[in-house]
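Try this one yourself first.
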């Protein structure tokens, strides 16, 4: 199976590197700066599996067909990429990896629904520089059909990707993707502070905001009857129990979980985009709660505030202090 990985950031680079290391027929498409660095010095992966150096064929545009195309760019970049490259995509199986729930809908406007497989990435990586990626922690890769029943092609993709991590097939991928929104929703806080996950969540004030994000999200999904299904190693009950506790107690438990996620500094996807002077995917993470609320005539004031704060950081490149963040969100934690 010839595989194209589109996007040379943290997840795209990691996946392409591991697939090549396992002798798969894979090539990478990314931004010119990354492609030039990979062509010159190869791709270096460090972290939880040690150090790996691989040579991956990399190109700055898609100019050939593949059997499996793994889309690892941000959701906001999908529309243009699909329009520009439809000739090379229309006959392939397309695997989405984006956070949020919009990617599959965007794809379905251009690609036949029976060629689309959705996925949820539960492992973590950090883009350090154009050809240097840290694999922060292990996790499963969940795949499933968003529009039709799972079939033999899903199992074929599972077999290939099982060479680099454990892949699970879900018959309810959309409900799982909604729960993944909760998992990702705390990424906005390191982005606002300009700090690693570990440095952010050693502050109990940030952990209290995280619990409040989850409370607001749970209330919204209940009122809108939006289904949530547990993820492997992240059950829905974890969120329900933490949000039911006194917030001071829940914040201490949450802090302990987050500061031990990785031995290496872990930077969320939103902050990584800001550091690279790229628009972040905040609209497809916390913005999902805001849009869900709007669609039912409801409000998600805390998540709306956090979206606005991330946008301000993107514009000004000025991060808040933990105290300033606590002051900005104080009214939503009452």
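Now uncover the answer:
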């Amino acid at each position: 199976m010839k595989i194209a990985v589109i996007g040379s950031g943290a997840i795209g680079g990691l996946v392409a590197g591991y697939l090549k290391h396992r002798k798969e027929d894979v090539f990478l498409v990314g931004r010119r700066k990354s492609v030039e660095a990979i062509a010159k010095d190869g791709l270096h992966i460090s972290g939880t599996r040690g150090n790996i150096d691989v040579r991956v064929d990399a190109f700055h545009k898609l100019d050939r067909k593949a059997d499996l195309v793994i889309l690892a760019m941000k959701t906001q970049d999908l529309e243009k990429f699909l329009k520009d490259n439809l000739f090379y995509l229309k006959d392939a199986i397309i695997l989405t990896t984006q956070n949020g729930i919009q990617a599959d809908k965007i794809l379905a406007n251009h690609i036949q629904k029976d060629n689309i497989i959705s996925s949820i990435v539960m492992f973590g990586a950090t883009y350090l520089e154009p050809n240097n990626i840290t694999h922060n922690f292990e996790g499963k890769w969940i795949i499933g059909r968003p529009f039709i029943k799972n079939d033999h092609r899903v199992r074929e993709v599972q077999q290939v990707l099982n060479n680099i991590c454990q892949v699970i097939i879900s018959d309810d991928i959309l409900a799982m993707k909604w729960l993944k929104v909760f998992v990702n929703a705390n990424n906005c806080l390191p982005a606002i502070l300009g700090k690693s996950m570990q440095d952010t969540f050693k502050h109990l004030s940030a952990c209290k905001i995280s619990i409040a994000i989850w409370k607001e999200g749970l209330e919204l999904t209940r009122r809108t009857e939006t289904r949530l299904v547990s993820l492997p190693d992240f059950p829905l009950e974890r969120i329900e129990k933490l949000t039911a506790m006194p917030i001071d107690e829940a914040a201490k438990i949450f802090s302990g979980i987050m500061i031990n996620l990785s031995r290496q500094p872990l930077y969320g996807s939103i902050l990584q985009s800001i550091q690279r002077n790229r628009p972040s995917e905040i609209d497809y993470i916390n913005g999902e709660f805001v849009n869900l609320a709007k669609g039912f005539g409801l409000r998600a004031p805390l998540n709306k505030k956090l979206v606005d704060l991330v946008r301000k950081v993107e514009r000004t490149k000025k991060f808040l202090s933990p105290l300033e963040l606590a002051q900005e969100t104080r009214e939503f934690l009452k």
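Discussion: The domain at 2-171 is CATH 3.40.50.720 (Rossmann fold). The longest strand covers residues 116-121.
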